[in-house]
Amino acid sequence: MAGAEAVERAHELYRGGRHREALELYSAALAAARGPAQRIALHSNRAACYLKLHDFHKAAEECTSVLELDTEHAGALMLRAQTLVTLKDYQSALFDVNRLIEINPSSEVYRNLHARLKTQLSLAPIPESEEESLYTEEDKEDLPPKDNTKNETVVVKSDQPSAKSLITRNL
């Protein structure tokens, strides 16, 4: 199948929900792609397939491949930011959104996403190693025992220096 025919067939497969097959054809077409515009389109299509297949790491990698070819590709920046949010990599997502705002400072969509990410980062759980260093030995005695259940702990600050509040939920 010739390059253009393979891409058209991949589009049909994608629209029909056959994302893995579409991905294979996009990959074959990418191997034969000639110019940057063609490679950008094919990496973008592969990113869309990976998203549909819930392979968020590979979707982000495909967006990165697009950005290596065009550092200001707004679609790839937005898609990678959304994918990074799904992966809970809020700091990296914020980096991409900041780049989007640099490209288009008047975009309300980008500014809203920026505000949501800043809020999320302020609420993000503290990694366990950092969490333990926040407590005195006496405080640690009051913590629930560790088990194999994954917990998310959020430290809520109070106006009173000695007050600490923990919210723990099982995931």
TrEMBL record:
It holds the Pfam family TPR_19. Gene3D superfamilies: Tetratricopeptide repeat domain. Residues 128-171 are annotated as: Disordered. Residues 159-171 have a biased composition (Polar residues). Residues 128-141 have a biased composition (Acidic residues). InterPro entries: TPR-like_helical_dom_sf, TPR_rpt. PANTHER family: TETRATRICOPEPTIDE REPEAT (TPR)-LIKE SUPERFAMILY PROTEIN. This is Uncharacterized protein. It comes from Aegilops tauschii subsp. strangulata.
